[in-house]
Write a structure and sequence with these properties.
The protein is mainly α. The chain has helices spanning 2-12, 16-35, 40-61, 70-81, 90-104, 182-201. The chain has six helices and no strands. The protein folds into two domains: 2-61, no CATH class; 64-160, no CATH class.
Length: 202
């Protein structure tokens, strides 16, 4: 049941309770058939045929959804939210959910969405009404105000660094470094100078 619910959540992002209730009903029906002496293989094959028939019926009654039709998407999102704890806030969350999905897919070619492309950042304080959709990247790193770090930067240039700035660590762990010779002192300050130069170049 847990795996079934998890698979439904990955595939659709909703309907986890529905699939558990449906699976429970099917298991209950299977138990009744087993008690009547019907072979488990026959029951499994019957369920398989029934699933194909149900899929045919659902395909017939399904309405094609145009991803360019925002109003239909909002209605679908609101309907989904009505079964959640935050149902009274569906007017706030439905547009946010629709806009978030539309920004990570190409409506002309998409048939599904990877929910990992949408990040939800939770912050302590405030209310549900403070929820907002940020079009871009949210950095959760705290600003070090005590070190004079900025709290707001407009039109900032962001560099993505994929290498380590600190000097390479030796294979041997050295707890105390004793500088016995002048050559060792030059080598020590040389590594610090290289690090400083790398940071300045960036």
């Amino acid at each position: 049941m847990v795996d079934l619910s998890a698979a439904q959540d990955v595939e659709a992002g909703d309907g986890t309770t529905s699939v558990v209730v449906l699976a429970g009903s099917l298991l209950g029906a299977a138990q009744k058939m087993l008690s009547k002496g019907i072979h488990p293989t026959t029951i499994a094959e019957s369920f398989q045929r029934a699933s194909h028939k149900a899929n045919e019926f659902l395909t017939e009654v399904a309405t094609k959804l145009d991803l360019a039709d925002r109003e239909s998407l909002l209605k679908s999102a609101s309907t989904s939210l009505n079964s959640k704890i935050v149902s009274q806030y569906s007017g706030l969350f439905a547009p946010i959910a629709v806009d978030a999905v539309l920004r990570v897919i190409d409506p002309a070619t998409a048939i599904n969405v990877d929910l990992k492309d949408i990040r939800i950042v939770k912050k302590v304080g405030g209310t549900i009404d403070d929820t907002e959709l940020v079009d871009g990247l949210v950095l959760a790193q705290n600003v070090v105000k005590s070190a004079g770090g900025p709290t707001r930067i407009e039109k900032a240039k962001i560099g993505l660094i994929q290498f380590q700035l600190s000097p390479p660590k030796p294979d041997v762990c050295i707890v105390v470094m004793m500088i016995m010779t002048f050559e060792t002192l030059i080598m020590f300050y040389g590594e610090a100078a290289n690090l400083s130069e790398n940071v300045t170049n960036i």
